[in-house]
Design a protein that fits this description.
alpha/beta; Rossmann fold; two-stranded antiparallel sheet
Length: 329
């Protein structure tokens, strides 16, 4: 895989961003005028997605929020001017219907931010027996991006697709021998696989979209307590040192939701990333490559999450699974 003549792994190193782990959504967008830009933000009505939507609309962007709970979204987004379309990422028919509604209300899309997700859920089977975290976190976003690709390609100044991955990608690569955990379910490995898939999706989308000005990035937003932990018990979170018995955040290095949204907004708007793509970001910066024994909390990205051959294989598997229209260059 090449971008401007260099491999993605060659470019996978810090580039001198003026922002950091402590930067907020407001810091990243300060002084930017996004009037005339149209963005889609999945999960844009809670947690990091809500912070993202608020920041984008405050900067003048027109934001469309696909929502599994439209009524909840309307309440959360009241006064932002954003538009809401119903969508369940785990249901391909629902994703296609949402994409159709989005195509009906805009002729181009400047930004697609895939923020929605689930984590460490009990075993669930969706669709034709897909593992639920892989289906929601990866396949749903994959299908949505393919359905919306003509709008992205129509953006006159180029478009960016930003996918929330996680440091959890360090738990496992793609388990092609047992993609849907049919021989035994592990909720953390299932989460890790879905986050590796998010990163690989950005790698190959950037390959396919570069000629149309569509660039893609994946990112780790940091450690943040949001609704993402909703299916973990309080005791699990206490045992991991994230919160105390009263639910107060006590974990070292945890961010606020606004700080957690900052890297995605930097990915979507930073001129420093112009001409780049297929990269993994963290703390408002391009992440470093890390070795297999690097502790997850030390940051960085595993090389397997950037592997172009693995990204191409996953793309083919995802096309076959979802029946999505291929993005052909």
């Amino acid at each position: 895989m090449t971008t401007t003549g260099r491999t993605t792994t060659d470019q996978q190193q810090p580039i001198g961003s003026p922002f950091s782990a402590s930067s907020t959504a407001e810091d990243v967008l300060a002084g930017l005028d996004l009037s005339g830009r149209t963005a889609v933000v999945t999960g844009g009505y809670c947690g990091l997605g809500l912070e993202t939507t608020r920041a984008l609309t405050a900067a003048g962007a027109d934001v469309i929020v696909p929502a599994r709970r439209p009524d909840t979204a309307r309440t959360a987004l009241a006064g932002t001017g954003s538009r809401i379309v119903p969508m369940d990422l785990a249901d391909p028919a629902s994703v296609r219907a949402a994409a159709g509604l989005i195509r009906d209300c805009t002729d181009r899309l400047d930004l697609l931010l895939a923020v929605a997700g689930v984590m460490a859920t009990p075993e669930r089977r969706v669709g034709p027996g897909w593992e639920g975290q892989f289906a929601t976190n990866h396949l749903g976003h994959f299908l949505l991006a393919c359905e919306l690709y003509p709008l992205l390609a129509a953006a006159p100044d180029g478009a960016r697709v930003v996918v929330n991955s996680s440091a959890g990608h360090a738990l496992t690569g793609i388990r092609r021998h047992d993609l849907h955990f049919r021989t035994g379910y592990d909720k953390w490995l299932a989460y890790g696989q879905s986050k590796t898939a998010n990163a690989l999706f950005a790698v190959h989308l950037d390959v396919l979209g570069g000629a149309d000005g569509v660039r893609a990035f994946a990112l780790h937003p940091g450690k943040i307590i949001t609704g993402l932990q909703r299916e973990m018990t309080r005791q699990e979170q206490v045992e991991r040192g994230w919160v105390d018995a009263q639910g107060r955040v006590i974990g070292a290095g945890f961010k606020t939701p606004s700080q957690g949204a900052a890297t995605g907004l930097w990915a979507a708007t930073s001129p420093l990333l112009g001409g780049r793509g297929g990269l993994y970001l963290e703390d408002c910066e391009v992440a470093r490559l890390c070795g297999p024994d690097t502790p997850m909390d030390d940051g960085g990205v595993r090389p397997y999450a950037l592997d172009p051959d693995e990204a191409a294989r996953l793309w083919g598997l995802s096309l076959a699974a979802t029946g999505a229209a291929p993005v052909i260059r």
